[in-house]
């Protein structure tokens, strides 16, 4: 089973950055406590305080699927839907030459 890496870039609507930040921070601790979570890090852009980036590492596809179906993940999605201007999610795997 291959480790899955998620890079998610979220941009808040104008004036909604602080609210989005608070909701995303609520997601971090619960997600880090999931069995298949290797790393779950939230970043904030230095240039634009309304832009946030998650870097996540999951044990495998099953761990990521479990995460997406947790109550805390679904709740965060509901709370942030109206705050987001843009969201890009990239599913990645490490290339070992």
TrEMBL record:
Keyword Ligase: no
Domain of life: Bacteria
NAD in keyword set: no
Stretches assigned to the ABM domain: 4-92
Entry keyword set: Monooxygenase, Oxidoreductase
Molecular function GO labels: monooxygenase activity
Protein name stated in the entry: Antibiotic biosynthesis monooxygenase
Organism: Lysinibacillus pakistanensis
């Amino acid at each position: 089973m291959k480790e899955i890496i998620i890079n998610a870039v979220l941009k808040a609507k104008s004036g909604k950055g602080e609210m989005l930040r608070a909701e995303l921070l609520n997601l971090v601790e619960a997600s880090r406590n999931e069995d298949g979570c290797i790393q779950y890090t939230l970043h904030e852009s230095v240039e634009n305080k309304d832009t946030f980036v998650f870097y996540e590492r999951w044990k495998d596809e099953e761990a990521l699927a479990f995460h997406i179906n947790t109550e805390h993940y679904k709740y965060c999605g509901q709370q942030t839907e109206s705050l987001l201007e843009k969201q890009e999610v990239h599913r990645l795997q490490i290339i070992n030459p």
